[in-house]
Amino acid sequence: MNKDTNNFPNPMVIYAEVTQGFLPVLGATVMATVEPQTGSAVELKLLDDGSGADIIKNDGIYSKYFTSFKGNGRYNLKVRVQGKDKTVRLGRRQSQALYVPGYIENGEIKMNAARPEVSDDEIQAKLGSFNRVASGGSFVVENVPSGGTTDVFPPCKIIDLEAQYEEDKIHLSWTAPGNDFDVGQADRYIMKMSESLLDLRNTFENATSVNTSSLVPNPAGTKESFQFKSENVTRENGTIIYFAIRAIDNASLTSEMSNIAQAALFLPPKESSPDSAPNDDVINKGISVLTIVLIVAGSIIAVSIAVSITVCI
C-alpha cells in the first residue's frame, strides 16, 4: 500500500513486488484481496504493464488503484502470486534510460547508433509453476460518506502515449484507462496536437483538436490504437508534432493530461531524374558557337591544349 491511513475520496494504491533474490519476476498472476470490516471482500488483479497505478513496465512491481470503499474503518490486505510455465524471471535489471534514435543539427538529420539488442535467452529464465501467499497488512479509511458514495474518481492519467508517422498518416497508441482510475471503462477521449511543446503543455484546451468521435474507449488495461491523416500541418523534413490526450468518464470527470508524445516527419530525399538528351538544334548551335570561338581565338586554344598536354605528361 502507498500509505497506512487514507481520507476519502483519495484512492489507495496497492502494489506487490515479486522477486527471486534481487531479480524481478515477470508474467506472474498477482491477485490482491481487500477485506473491509463490514461487507464482502474485493479482489483486484495487480498488473505490471506500465499503465494506471503501475509506473514502470516489467520491473516486477505489480500495482492497482483501490477505490471500492465500503465505509470507514480498517481494511485487511492479502496478496496471492501464481506462476505458470510462461512465468519468467528477468536475468538482470534493464536500463530505464530513454533511447533517442536521432537528432537534428543545422537542419540535417543525425542518426545515433542503434540500440544494442539483448536476446531473450540472456535476460530471461523460466521459473515454472509456483504459488505464494503473503499478508499485506492493513490500512484505515476515514471520511467515507454514509449511505453510499457517488462517482468521484476520474480516469487515471495515460502515461504511455506514443506517436509516429506512417506514410501520410499519424499513428498513436496508449493503454486505456478506466472509469475510476484504472478500473472499468472510460466514456470518451479528448486529443490535442500542436507544433509547440510548451503551448500544448501549458494550454491544452487551446491546442488543435483531433477528431476522435469514431474512437470508443476499451476496458482499462487494453492497448488502444488510433490513426488519422494530418491536415493543416507543416510537411517539411524534420517537422515535429506533439500530442496529448485526456480521458473522460460517464460522470464527465476528466483525467490529468497524458504524457506528451511526439511524431517527427522524415522525408526521404527525392530521386533526381536523368538529364534528357540534347536535341539536334542544341547540338548544332553548340557546334556553330564552337566554330566561331575556334576561328576567333584559335591561338589561345592552341596554347591551352599545349599546356594541358604538358601537365598530363
UniProtKB/TrEMBL annotation:
So which domain of life are we looking at?
Eukaryota
| Record keyword Transmembrane present | yes
Q: Which UniProt keywords apply?
A: Membrane, Transmembrane, Transmembrane helix
Q: Which residues cross the membrane?
A: 287-312
Return the Gene3D superfamilies for the record. Answer: Immunoglobulins
NCBIfam families given for it? choice_anch_X
- Annotated protein name in UniProt: Calcium-activated chloride channel regulator 4-like
